[in-house]
């Protein structure tokens, strides 16, 4: 009986310590914040173009300006596949330099979508933006303009 009580006490202490550690980690996590703004394409240069059956594949580089919660410039390297129906699928990687929530630095993001919009996902940040994560949906509002909305947070 004494042996069983000592194991119970050990498990109880371990459980209390674990809840204190997890509780402290959750309490120190940065809050998730809403992000919204606009993206303007300053330039878009086709680097290569090829045919794959009836589809046209384009490799391109765009220079864009973000305003709103993400304020800065980015270079995007992407691929677009234009189907005979007119539907366009694209995916790429962006390299942002600017300010988010009063902090200045850089972040990299991946994006994918079609002519109706898509998703941006931040996958690496450095400098004053170190620890930044987030994602945003983007939608076209003109030939060279998009809006974005989503969320971001900084790791503690």
UniProtKB/TrEMBL annotation:
SUPFAM superfamilies per the UniProt record, alphabetical: SO1590-like
Residues spanning the signal sequence: 1-29
Alphabetic keyword roster: Signal
InterPro entries xrefs: DUF3224, SO1590-like_sf
Pfam families xrefs: DUF3224 (PF11528)
Organism superkingdom: Bacteria
The protein's name in its UniProt record: DUF3224 domain-containing protein
Originating species: Capillimicrobium parvum
